[in-house]
Amino acid sequence: MSFTKEQLREQMLLYAVTDRHWLNGQTLYEQVEEALKGGATFIQLREKDLTEEEFLEEAKKIQQLCKKYRVPFIINDNVKLAKEIDADGVHVGQSDMEALDVRAQLGEDKIIGVSARTVEQALLAEKHGADYLGVGAVFQTGTKTDAREVEHSVLKEICTKVDIPVVAIGGITQDNVKELSGSGINGVAVISAIFAQKDIETATAKLKSCVEQMV
């Protein structure tokens, strides 16, 4: 699927990042479908503990699910695999492949997201062809124990300095998301606020409503 720049901005509202730590007898496919039913607008497959073969199999299934719901599906880090299955794009961190190189491999029509913690990193990512930025951690998070918090003033400055969409990530919940009001972000990326919840569909719908009010 291809998305215009304006559509992409809208798709950033509630960005769900997968994590199989909370499967509790369900499949990842089932959990992602619940999130999509609840209104998740963007899906990133981020699974650190699968073999390449297992990841490929999971990616193909969830890619079809996202097509059904007309929601962008991107792969975390693995540019080669994203190209192989023709995913909508890829998200890379500061220590992964550079955005320019990712663009050269994937082509102009794919979505490239880049993690940024500073204004300098954000500007460089935009200059090198990033389509959106993931900025965080904006709150303390248990999912990435090594993630240092990004001051909300820095988040706001990044939003004013770049022309591409910005999503905040890290420790975001229904209770604290309103603290990001006025920052200029286009949406939030979450893991446990969706996938660690007993009723994923309801939790997603409630969080989406909170994010819509905040944005």
UniProtKB/TrEMBL annotation:
Cofactor(s) named in the record: Mg(2+)
Keyword Transferase attached: yes
Residues annotated for Mg(2+) binding in this entry: D77, D96
UniProt keywords, alphabetically: Magnesium, Metal-binding, Thiamine biosynthesis, Transferase
This enzyme's EC code(s): 2.5.1.3
Single Gene Ontology BP annotation: thiamine biosynthetic process
Pathway where it operates: Cofactor biosynthesis; thiamine diphosphate biosynthesis; thiamine phosphate from 4-amino-2-methyl-5-diphosphomethylpyrimidine and 4-methyl-5-(2-phosphoethyl)-thiazole: step 1/1
Cofactor binding remark: Binds 1 Mg(2+) ion per subunit.
Record's catalysed reaction(s): 4-methyl-5-(2-phosphooxyethyl)-thiazole + 4-amino-2-methyl-5-(diphosphooxymethyl)pyrimidine + H(+) = thiamine phosphate + diphosphate; 2-(2-carboxy-4-methylthiazol-5-yl)ethyl phosphate + 4-amino-2-methyl-5-(diphosphooxymethyl)pyrimidine + 2 H(+) = thiamine phosphate + CO2 + diphosphate; 2-[(2R,5Z)-2-carboxy-4-methylthiazol-5(2H)-ylidene]ethyl phosphate + 4-amino-2-methyl-5-(diphosphooxymethyl)pyrimidine + 2 H(+) = thiamine phosphate + CO2 + diphosphate
Binding site for 4-amino-2-methyl-5-(diphosphooxymethyl)pyrimidine: Q44, L45, R46, E47, K48, N76, S115, K144
InterPro entries linked: Aldolase_TIM, ThiamineP_synth_sf, ThiamineP_synth_TenI, TMP_synthase
GO molecular function, one term: magnesium ion binding
Superkingdom assignment: Bacteria
Domain Thiamine phosphate synthase/TenI: 14-194
Gene3D superfamilies referenced in this protein's UniProt entry, alphabetically: Aldolase class I
Binding site for 2-[(2R,5Z)-2-carboxy-4-methylthiazol-5(2H)-ylidene]ethyl phosphate: T141, G142, T143, G171, I191, S192
Any one GO cellular component localisation term in the record: cytoplasm
Role noted for this protein: Condenses 4-methyl-5-(beta-hydroxyethyl)thiazole monophosphate (THZ-P) and 2-methyl-4-amino-5-hydroxymethyl pyrimidine pyrophosphate (HMP-PP) to form thiamine monophosphate (TMP).
Entries under HAMAP family matching the protein: TMP_synthase
Family: Belongs to the thiamine-phosphate synthase family.
Protein name: Thiamine-phosphate synthase
Organism annotation: [Ruminococcus] torques
